[in-house]
Amino acid sequence: MDSKLLYAVVQALESKIVWQQNGESEWIYLGYQNKLDIEKLLQKVNKFFSEEQLLIKKGRRDSIETTKNEINKNHSILDNKTTGYILCNASFNKFIEVSSIDIIRVGEKFKYTNL
Description:
The chain is α+β, with helices and mostly antiparallel strands. 24% of the residues lie in helices and 30% in strands. It has 3 helices and 9 strands. Strands 1, 2, 5, 6, 7, 8 and 9 form a 7-stranded antiparallel beta sheet that branches. A two-stranded antiparallel sheet has the order 3-4.
């Protein structure tokens, strides 16, 4: 998928994400000595996403398609030093947002129901 299209799709869905609550907040600290604990993030990614294909929304020109296997081999894909990003599955219904200050939140797209 083209970087600009991926960025636009995830951007449009952001307001429809229901973030999981963890106590009083939806954010989880994954830092260790002022840097992101990649091992903890990888555990979260591998447990939360059942699909192999993942999408990473960073910016209009650097959003990418990747796989869990590629992320596990090349941790630099998950670098959050300059800006945060959102990981999502190819179905666009599960999301992990990674902030540039070493916190993450996990959520799913809101499911509409007929009441």
